[in-house]
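Quick question: what would this complex look like in 3D?
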Amino acid sequence: MTDAYDNPFERYTYKSDLIEQIRAADGRASFGRVTVRTARSFGFCWGVDRAVAMVWDTLAEHPDRPIWLLDQIIHNPRVNADFKSKGVRFIRGPFAVDDGGPREPQRDDIVVIPAFSATVEDTRWLQGIGCTIVDTTCPWVIKPHKRSQRYVKDGFTTLIHGLVHHEETHASCSLIASEGGRFIVVADREQASWVCDTIRSSITFEELARRLPDDALSSGFAEEHLHQLGTINQTTMLAAETRQIEADVRAAMSERYADDDITDHFRELNTICGATQDNQDSVVALVEEGVLDLMVVVGGYDSSNTRNLTRVGADHFPSYHVDGPGVIASDTIRHRCPEKGTFVDTNDWLPAGDVVIGFTAGASTPDALLAETIERVLSVAGESVEVAR
Ligand code: SF4
């Protein structure tokens, strides 16, 4: 890492000489018995870069004012810890602490809204306090918001492919409800199949409501609200899965309303962001080369897009989602299962002899953290990296 962590005025760039070298070599580097391959596109996306820069700008421009983050700025523990070390307080989330200091912002304070956006309730609360709001919401997140507002206006229910407790989806649900609309959230194709079964009357609406997670249906949702559905997706979901879900729901609607114009009952819009799509396409391309023995995906465990990158590789070879070098040892790697969300210790994870390892990183993962993870893997393999720093 090129940054001076002890300089309170220096912002961290999170860049890495090693990663720059690998990028310049078209994503290929050999270190003894280990060949490292990286996806063509990985790591910090434009929206994350922008949000992080806005916090640094706020710190630099207002050194004398208390600065708060509503919650994690992005889903990467290191970046959030860095801001915390600079005196930023978190209103909620894993970085909020009860240290005897203030728990809520005051009128003269500054509050930063994360890249995921904020709920309507939180925005109104902050406006009521009268504090200064710095809104880092990624413009890509605005796209599903605008589309869902259109659905509400047209009397359609918004079907969201997303994670019901993810901040972005939470904010979308809040917006829809505040405008008098309805939503239903499905996390994957299985949950979407329950919606399709209900449309086809194969299961009752009560059974659907029982199966879905808490908060997946807007308040007062009834069976009739499934008659007109319009889709959006959380910007970081798996694009291929979204397409499958849309095809499944369209087919169910076509069966149920065979005599009607389908657009009276079903509309769709892919709201996956460009960066997520690029990162996923890049991993698909790397997988399709057929040269990898395993893959290491680096990113925060709350990160939806990192989880989905892991899912791409997991169908083909061992694919390990780790949050950094600390969980990698010579005999064991501790990683997060992308399907169950549980943590797994895998022994003998690194094959003997020559090995080709794919690496990628989620949109909120600093290059420096990916570099440290690569260096750790090389060390475990008995190899080392010499990089001009
Ligand atoms: S992953 Fe996409 S939506 Fe999220 S911050 Fe990055 S560019 Fe924006």
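Answer marked as accepted. The domain at 139-267 is CATH 3.40.1010.20 (Cobalt-precorrin-4 Transmethylase; domain 1).
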